[in-house]
Design a protein that fits this description.
The protein is mainly alpha-helical. The protein is built from 6 helices and 2 strands. It has one domain.
Length: about 140
Amino acid sequence: MTHPGVGPVTALATEVFLGDPRRFVDGKAVASYIGMIPSEHSSGRRQRLGKLSKQGNSLLRFLWGEAAIHAVRRDPELQRFYRRKLVQKGMGKASVATARKLGFRLWIMLRDEIDYSEFCRRSHLRRQCIGVVCAGMPEGYTGPK
């Protein structure tokens, strides 16, 4: 795995603990498997989301958190995301959100068997597609108003 900030131990742990990446439907399923989703205490119409559920692998959660700190320094897009969350939510929640996003990226790279440069290329192409009719969107759709 060639993502900046992700060393050989984190890459190996991600590959080993996730197993076959195609078994996950989407990134939310990966986050749920690792335990990086909020616990829920709901009653009636009130939905209350709490701290991390911590149901998954604690070592992988720790490694993604540490790797996210280093990746923020080396990846400008991840750094923008972290800084935006830092202003909105504070340091603790921003770190967890960044670790979760890094986990999504690692899962995508594993699932599609691509390296970081190909991941960035696809991301750039996807951002260019915003002004054009994209797959799954009806013609004439201009986005949220």
